[in-house]
Fold these 2 entries.
Entry 1:
Amino acid sequence: MPTPTYPRTARPALIVGSVAIDSVATPFAQSDNILGGAASYASIAASYFAPTRLVGVVGADFPAAFLKRLKKHGIDTQGLQIDPAGKTFYWSGRYRENFEGRDTLTIQLNVFDKFSPELPSNYKGTPFVMLGAIQPALQNHVIDQLTKEKQHKPFILADTFDLWIHTTRPDLERLLKRVDLFVINEEESQLLTGERNPAIAAGKLRKMGPRIIVIKKGGHGSLLFHPDGNFAIPAYPVTKFIDPTGAGDSYAGALIGYLAAANSTSFPTLKKAVAYATAVSSLTVESFSVDRLSGAGRKVIDQRYRALSALTRF
Amino acid sequence: MPTPTYPRTARPALIVGSVAIDSVATPFAQSDNILGGAASYASIAASYFAPTRLVGVVGADFPAAFLKRLKKHGIDTQGLQIDPAGKTFYWSGRYRENFEGRDTLTIQLNVFDKFSPELPSNYKGTPFVMLGAIQPALQNHVIDQLTKEKQHKPFILADTFDLWIHTTRPDLERLLKRVDLFVINEEESQLLTGERNPAIAAGKLRKMGPRIIVIKKGGHGSLLFHPDGNFAIPAYPVTKFIDPTGAGDSYAGALIGYLAAANSTSFPTLKKAVAYATAVSSLTVESFSVDRLSGAGRKVIDQRYRALSALTRF
């Protein structure tokens, strides 16, 4: 794909998170040593909408082809540390029958074990920031480095996952006080709030800090809770379901990318961003790794966005 | 509530199914000897939109207050047999924690055991018919009685449940060849088709006969598959969840009632009908029995319909 061009008004987006080498088994197929990690999926997704900066770490073994893939999307990899002393974060997992949960087979943190996200100085004023689901202490450390100037305060999206809810809840609670938009899946929102009704759970989450909440429900779509109103959207009806890995990460990446492109966090903009995020994440599940996400192109994304509009209008 | 008035163009709807006395326990509360049965929920729901005829059976013990409730909705109960020799169908059940499934505690079929739905002669030409989830052989028996005149062929909606998929599949398959619209929940569609992807399952169901499929996903909304297009709608975001009994029945009843009122089965009409069905069924879960469904009134239903439109538009 050609390096994307963005509208003149588009602001940059910063993605911080894991970059990994994955081996994934599903009930139907297997793919080994593929590009993975939340920040890989999220940065490619964001790059469809806005200039995208990536902060993460990889080892000396990180394949040049993977780096080339990110650069082809125009992603600024100045913040991607390459630690020559170690190997890239490696994860392998196996999805259970009917994709009802997955089991981790191997985690080798490698260079990720001592990773501390350090922002290049020209990243510190990035106006739209996504903090992937790394340890909340590290997410907080990123926020510490962002500009404190009131008129340039960045808009911050954070993701998390169940491990941090169980093990580092105080850090997570501190984080929530500092972010604008919290993206969480339905099970995790139940775990964190003790509330199964998503509307009530979202109210509790907003009391913990973020003024905007997105609850993802996988194949059942997602819900947006914004001070100016709520929004619900179904999943894009995928018929070729290969591997859900990275769906949530590409969802969040598209979300922050679209907001950066629009340079707005209004309710109408957030609704469109959620619809684009839905379209983009539907691509991710249609292949292993970022293959389909990366290969599809903006035109297919726009088609799916319009299809979602047609699918939901009455 | 006053007896409803309908648009001059509205056609009548016929509802066939169980009328029961229920005792329901949820994790939070219990309510005994209340009006239940698919046809009770469905006929009250349909009555908000179109003149509604009810075919079912009750025993001599059926409380006059329950009959009065149905009549207050203007429901034509000429087809409701009262069997003086027996007692009304009685069901009691208990929902499990978090409403994840329910257990039947008691079933006393009573007069329902020998029930054979016989249509009064003036019902046989009813243009819109809902067959509640009674035995497929009885659903077929109703169709046998409907007018065969080509230009007056009724539009038939059928519901079913997992027991009939397990025990009387040949009858169910015969039924499916004879109905226009099949309403089924997601688990049952998986059971019947062996396919978990709802879009693919709907394709398989359409090959079995019905040209229109609705797949209900409970709190995750519902999906419409029509020859002219597909439609997805989230559930109405209820915050006062009391008892899900009858939600699916009132959904189907509102659906057939709206189609009868519009005298159309076009794709745009079906989408609106699904949205109204979503609004109506959200009322059902807000109380035990038909209390909230019956008490809410058309104005609240219209409000929820508009709220669903606002919730889903981007």
Note: Chain A touches chain B through 31 residues (CB under 8 Å).
Entry 2:
Amino acid sequence: MRDVAVIGIGMTKWGELWEKSLRDIYVETALLAIDDAGVDHIDSMYVGSMSSGIFVGQEHIASLLADYLGCAPVPSTRVETACASGGLALRLGFMEVASGMSDIVLVSGVEKMTDVGGDKATYALGTAADQEYECYHGITFPGLYALMAVAHMNKYGTTREQLAEVAVKNHRNGSKNPLAQFPFEVTVEDVINSVKIADPLRILDCSPITDGAAAAIICPVEMAKKLNKPVVKVIGSGHATDAIAISQRKDMTWLEATYRAGKSAYEMAQKKPKDIDVFEVHDCFTIAELCVMEALGIVEKGKSGEAVEKGRTAIDGDMPVNPSGGLKSKGHPVRATGIAQAVEIVKQLSGESEERQVKGARIGLTQNMGGSGASTVVHIFEKE
Amino acid sequence: MRDVAVIGIGMTKWGELWEKSLRDIYVETALLAIDDAGVDHIDSMYVGSMSSGIFVGQEHIASLLADYLGCAPVPSTRVETACASGGLALRLGFMEVASGMSDIVLVSGVEKMTDVGGDKATYALGTAADQEYECYHGITFPGLYALMAVAHMNKYGTTREQLAEVAVKNHRNGSKNPLAQFPFEVTVEDVINSVKIADPLRILDCSPITDGAAAAIICPVEMAKKLNKPVVKVIGSGHATDAIAISQRKDMTWLEATYRAGKSAYEMAQKKPKDIDVFEVHDCFTIAELCVMEALGIVEKGKSGEAVEKGRTAIDGDMPVNPSGGLKSKGHPVRATGIAQAVEIVKQLSGESEERQVKGARIGLTQNMGGSGASTVVHIFEKE
């Protein structure tokens, strides 16, 4: 297998982009990545996508977007594993370059969520839960994560304030990210007093509905060096699955797929959690960030709430998590999220994150998960 | 890159399977392939899928099906490129094994189409056309292929009877396939006098709405030899895209993505069309089989109707096409089709196709396409 590098990244301002269609948002972002890489063609492309059939009535988007980007007839593949679709697109592109099948691959994700009303968006997102064992009984994602939050509070004594501290930190980071959907700060009181969604989760515990895209160009390391590009290598890739329905898991507070995907990525990269300088993880709800930290081995089981409260995961902490603002403040166009995490890590390792820069970051990790954690993709990056 | 072999196949009876759910159909079929391969585990799996969100309200099916198959936490990936999703699952599995990332990979497709009414099925299938430039104006797939048929008739003098001959041949072949949805023969008169769908296409020119699944296990050739399995190698893989909207193509009778994907596969396999002993191609409508034959270089442009009429594509012809019965008679559970084509070719090359066996077949080709041809995946197989 060949070594793989990221040589170009692209991301545009996220939010409620009512004046742009899915194809507009995609092309604008993909061209930024192509320009950044300075390549004159691509050999293949991957598009992470969750539920474009329900959101915009359009499947077959891999071919559609290849055509609109002016890249047809290149092979173009849509992959889906709920909200981890972006991370999965990166993993498959990595595999294609590593195998020698292709040299220059565009990996990307795009989502247009605001063309449908709130009810339909909730339904579309709900298709990532178990229709027969979960949705049929009326539960949706805020409810599933609320169950996980209650279980974590009961088992480990995690507090309502500690959950809020995740949102406070991520909004503080996001306020320094010009591309974030909600670039403003919030306080613990703001979070705790915001509208109740599913007890104990309030609206400021939840990531938003977002339109947006993100893209990256990857190629063999040898080629990156010839192009005189700064080399950020992809040194580890892991992907794992778990039961979709949380009732089928032994412990609702434990994300087995994140643990397994992390283990695969750490092994491939020959790194340990303590070797990682900066993390971008899937904080679709505040409780998610806590469970992920434990499953990735950043902190011991049950100690995540305390770590956040003490500021250890802040940009200047000893284990910075989500300097981009995370899904919470940056936004969460579901299938673009995994690629946007990689975009942030590449910026961090290249020293280009300006006000939210983690000093001296050389090794970074992304964790992108689907549903209530039934699929997870982890990547580890290193600056040469 | 490592050489790759198919060591196990699975397919169950296709049709209107109202008493089985998507997960039931899938698990039953995947277990057949695993049993056939005689392996005790899999390292990774791919599920081809078109629009499960609309058909059964369930996305995230890669994790769901891994769990129901008892294989979680293995990495499980859903890929989609409309009706070519099955072929694409095979291609990505091929890439994963060839790269050395994994050894034993399950590639599969499943579709449950009859849980929704005809209108919703037509809508779901329509999401593979261009929503903004085609569907918005009221056209659906029978109409798009009817336009291609009229163009072919006008340009090359292809006759209504020649189109019917495609259905007659495929139903004759399908009558010998116990797993086919419609295993009976039809006559040219039956086809021409059947209900009109979109002039000149009649209902017997169209593939049906089907529930069904298909699965295969692939591994490195060296491993297949150690397992004492008959070795059917995957020697070529091609994938290409084109404009989704047929109005954006230079020639409505020419399938550029099929031509390009075929070219890539022929080059990788170092074979020419005349080296192929048996073809399984995407006859979603009778006109499709004709256009595909021309784009794959089996016959010259405009000569496909004549070739079918003369019996050259029959099982005992000099270029047998769709001995399985094709999508027309065997059925077309959209995302399972590409894998079912591979299942048939493996059977043919292993001499296990009984009454529909192409004598002495050693090299076979599958062509699986999405929408009105905007994505195509081609594979070439060889018996050692």
Note: Chain B has two domains: 4-117+210-226, 137-207+235-383.
